[in-house]
Amino acid sequence: MPDVPTNIPTPDPSLKNSNQPQKIYLKDYTPPVFSVNHIDLNIELFDGADKKHATVTANLDMTRNTAGDLVLFGRELQLESITLNGKTLSESDYQLDQESLTIVNAPDNCQITTVVTIVPQTNTSLEGLYQAGEGADKMFCTQCEPEGFRKITFYPDRPDVLATFTTRIEADKTYPTLLANGNLIDQGELAGDRHFAVWQDPTKKPSYLFACVMADLDVLTDQYVTSEGREVLLELYAKHENIEQCHVGMQALKDSMKWDEDNYGRAYDLDRYMIVAVSQFNMGAMENKGLNIFNTACVLSSPETTTDRRNFNVKAVIAHEYFHNWTGNRITCRDWFQLCLKEGFTVFRDQSFSESLHSPAVQRIDDVATLRAAQFPEDASPLAHPPRPDHFVEINNFYTATVYEKGAEIVRMIANTLGKDKFRQGTDEYFRRYDGQAVTVEDLLSALSVADPSIETFIDWYTQPGTPTLSGYFTVENNRLALSLSQQTRQVAGYPAPKALPIPVKMAIFNRATGELAKEDLVLLKDDSQSFEFDGLFAKADFDPVVSLLRDFSAPVQLNFNYSNDDLAFLMQYETNGFNRWQAAQLLVNRILLQNADTDAYITALKASLPALSETDPMLAARLLDMPSERELGSAIQTDYDPSQVRARHQAVKKAVAVELKDIWQSAYAKLPISAYEDTAEAMGVRAWRNVVLDMALLAGVSDAKHWAITQYQQASCMTERLGALNAAVAHGLPQKAEWLADFYQRFHHDALVMDLWFGVQANDSQASVADIFALTSHQDFDINTPNRVRAVLGGLLAQPTKIWTQQGVEQYLSMMQDLDKRNPLLASRLIQGLSNWNALVADKKSMVKQALILSQANMSSKNVKETLQSMLNNL
Ligand code: TRP
Ligand code: ZN
């Protein structure tokens, strides 16, 4: 029998049934009563047949800052002993509850030593120290952000307490890899086939950046010499069979290190940088100081197993976590309300890095597509919140598209308003002023404003929820063009009346008669409405203006300009800004899908653009055919949303486009023979375009297309091609569908990340019933404890609104959530957020879903899920 601890405080029953989890407010922030100068941590892992737990001894050197109690947070810890300045404390010397340990009247200088027992082997929450994987795959690792450290030891676990760490880890030699933050200062063998390692992190850091790993892993090593001459050892750890999939990540790491030196003047500050790949992980990756931990999906990459999109994402996530070393780690958050201080800024930085790797226009298109697909719906839902929230129950619920993606858009607006040099001046000032500190969004704005005080007005973007709508029109009088712009933001329940925000509008004016670009400008809309005048345009007699607004998506707003369909078709062909060509197509196709506008102008413009564009920029050509998904269309509808109507329209429009452009597909595919795999922007563009052509050709009934699919599946040089053919077979019900699914399984069943694709393809199959999709969760390779696998299946269901929004869909989904709520509350809560736009549904569906949500509420116990359900039901 494993010795499972018994004296974990049992929950107070009155708390468990409470439907009012406690809210924490930004306005209540107070500085920490004690600081920690240093922590000595000793983690002894036991994983034998009869002994499965870890003993954690922490020695805290603490100094008083202000009057008050000494509070250490701790959750699910079995306290074995505690001493204060050498004296063992008895139960009457402190107060212990489920969340904390409090010592009243503590002296000004405290040496506190605690010994606790934890059980990583049964920790399915993937927070704190946990076991990831089973059998030969088993390893132990940590996830501390935001509040996981308190599941390892008693500690003032808040981001504004910064300390140096010394970490000793001890385990059986079956776990040869023992890692923690910083530099390795000692290691050795112990009796009983055990060993240890001691790591010292010289940089003061908050506890959320702590990490350690005990595992049996291979390592890929490399070196980087920084601009300051520091020789940095780079190590990428993964399971033995995956180590060859680490080269892309390693190159991306070196590229990121160089990019941050070149673009922000930031060099790496330690002698070692480690990345560890873990198969069970709640999010993408984590920026722990000097020891990043990555979801395997965000670090492993090989042409045979990884699609171009995921390969590209690997580079972006590597960059993101590396960039956190300055924006997040060296300068961290004062409190968790400031999360977007590090996340928004860091996402902006990784997006800029990605722009440098391939086409900036396509990168911008993909980032805006993500914003529109994830953040706009969130901002329109009952879960709407500002990028910097002012209250929360469970901070894990605020790692959202609004904090990350809208947060990045705000920094981008500031960067564009300032221009390159002044923005660099501002970021230099930020790093100079706040290095080593825990700061706020106001601090960031104040540093970025050194060269231009008007930047401070962007604070309202951080504090106000809701997506602004930018409306406008123009008039021509006396040879002057007057552009009228106005803004409006919906009032979100619980927030003050919306204010006008500073909206930078990047724009251009074209001459319809010649297709020529006549003017480019950046105007700033500061008030509810304003007019901007342009003259000198009408010198040419044939001048007929077409205005193009919001180039490069210069602000995160809904654009409601009174373009005619012909204006949009013109811009699809003649805009010189690649992003705005795409945006024009999107505006037009949205009118067709949502307002039943006719397809003529759109199809004519596609016919005129695609043949040439597919030669010069096949990636952009592929993106030009993007259609908002059924799910995204659904979230653009505020009331009486009927999923089957949306689906019917979506299918009809796509089919009409495919048929009208049949000749294009017919001639395009022949020019796209499969060639050897290359990891370049050009080759990725060709593969993206080829897959779009294949899909459209099958839809249009091009007679050769079935053969193209077969050849592509059989001769695929990489996963993008093989999956493209498989997706086509599934989407179009080709006779090879079952055979290829079986073949795919045979080829790749040993590779978890490819199996996620296999599950995903089937969960996204429009022919599958709700029951078919849930049947995937009974497959022998399904594992509810692996978030990637759960998401692969449930993501497919969420992508099919006609299925999720049925009684069976919602009820089965919520019953899985009840199970997950006990195992992994973070994942459960995020998946329930996927149902947040329920309140826009048509009446009968709406009341059905509401009933199901209310019923499920009673069966949920985590703070995470309770807060989410409560917001979904109440914040309407
Ligand atoms: N800070 C991480 C990032 O953005 C993400 C993160 C936050 C996370 N909380 C987490 C990762 C919990 C895993 C689990 O890069
Ligand atoms: Zn991040």
From TrEMBL:
Family the entry assigns: Belongs to the peptidase M1 family.
Chain spans, region Disordered: 1-20
EC number: 3.4.11.2
Domain Aminopeptidase N-like N-terminal: 38-209
BP GO terms, sorted: proteolysis
This protein's record includes keyword Zinc: yes
Domain Peptidase M1 alanyl aminopeptidase C-terminal: 566-873
Name of the protein: Aminopeptidase N
Residues of the Peptidase M1 membrane alanine aminopeptidase domain: 250-460
The organism of origin for this protein: Moraxella tetraodonis
GO MF annotation list: alanyl aminopeptidase activity; metallopeptidase activity; zinc ion binding
